[in-house]
Amino acid sequence: MEQIPNFRLDGGDMQYIVQNMYKLTANKLSPFYGMPAGGEKPAREALKLAEDEELKTLAQVLAQPGLKLSLRRGGATIPLEASALFIGQRPEAAGAVYLQEDGGLLSLTYFKNLKQYGEYFAAQNAVPVSLQPANTLKQELQLEDIVFTFNLTDCYRRAYLNNMLQDSYGPVDAVYEDEFVAVLEKSLKSPDIRWLLPSFLRLVPGLEKIGLEFSEKQVEMAEAMSLISRGANPGDNRPIYYLGGPGKYLGLEFSLFWQNAVGFEAVGLNEKSGETESLGQYYFAPTEEANHLFSITGSINDRFAASHQALTPEETAEQIQKILEGHCTGTTAPATQSGKTARCTASKTAAVAQPAEIQVAAAVPQAAKFCRNCGTKLAPATAFCGNCGTKV
């Protein structure tokens, strides 16, 4: 990757330079919008830096961005970090500025185009994968389907970790339905981003304001994707979710390899009202098996919809570039309900509905690197699982 200009200076100094030296007016997307003019004269080093032509270009983007990306990063291994990307009104000419507070100073990184930022995003967040990732989920789902899947994965992780504490080597084959619902109710309120579902809800800006409405459809969708099949425990007739191949695959993948995630929201200016509005929300969760990208940009039957992609690092860079270019040109579908710009409103969360008997659809992940039967990781080019003997 070519050299990328980076500046570090005091926030007050930068504000003074933008307002009093460059004489720039800030719009509502700008980090300087609403800040009072004036302030103390910057230090000599900052005044010298103000003569830099790249800083002048950078300041123009910060003062009058056409698109803002609010980012949050965190997860199992790192605490919550916040940053933002500001994209010029003509990104092909003005570029983009990545802003992060670092040790009490502003760290400002300038990208001359969105391709360069996409490569930077992938270099910072994506994980190399040895094979083309297997997409174990449908490409388009309701938001509640994603929440259901993440909660199932967290239930698997809890059982997997509990087995480790008890020195058990047995595979995780099932989850009790009442325990699933209890974990879901807790995770919807939890700030603990070390777990997958809370990280999804807390890292994606604005997601906590979207009302979730769970129903039987989420259980049916999980069955259709072979994440689960429903039954009852023979001993006490307790309702149970048996994990299908894709369910074990995702559960083991995130238990072993997931470390952190990035949530981000694209925000633009409404041309008619002049107000800011959400254009799309995204969640990026890398593992050693795939770089999972979830995009919340449309609707299914008047409910928020999310699309899923399992990507390589190179594909990640291309998708980030494509997403940002789409929002800049208006070709990326905004988050809508019934054809209108979505206004995120809070509503009460509901528990998963009681299950009913339905036909189970068979589905297995393509290019799976875990056993479809027991979830054990497979050796390269093997024909049979070394744990249970199932043919690959």
Question: How would you concisely characterize the structure shown here?
Answer:
With 392 residues, this protein is an alpha+beta fold.
List descriptors:
alpha+beta; 3-stranded antiparallel sheet; 392 residues; 10-stranded antiparallel sheet
List the helices and strands and how they pair.
Elements: E1 6-9, H1 11-21, H2 44-49, H3 53-63, E2 65-75, E3 81-88, H4 91-94, E4 96-102, E5 105-111, H5 114-125, E6 140-142, H6 143-165, E7 174-176, H7 177-187, H8 196-203, H9 216-224, E8 228-232, E9 239-243, H10 245-257, E10 260-269, E11 276-286, E12 291-300, E13 303-311, H11 313-329, E14 336-337, E15 340-341
Antiparallel strand pairs: 1-5, 2-3, 2-10, 3-4, 4-5, 6-13, 7-9, 8-9, 10-11, 11-12, 12-13, 14-15
Helix pairs in contact: 5-11, 6-7, 6-9, 6-10
The chain-level structural class is: alpha+beta
Strand content: 15-25%
SS summary, helix count: 11
Helical coverage, percent range: 25-40%
Radius of gyration: 23 Å
How many strand elements? 15
Query: Given the C-alpha coordinates, what overall shape results?
Result: elongated
Distance between the termini: 39 Å
Largest sheet: 10 strands, antiparallel
Strand order of the largest sheet: 1-5-4-3-2-10-11-12-13-6
Overall mean confidence score, pLDDT: 85
Oligomer: single chain
- Uncertain stretches of 5 or more adjacent residues: 334-368
Written as H for each helix and E for each strand, in order along the chain, the element string is EHHHEEHEEHEHEHHHEEHEEEEHEE
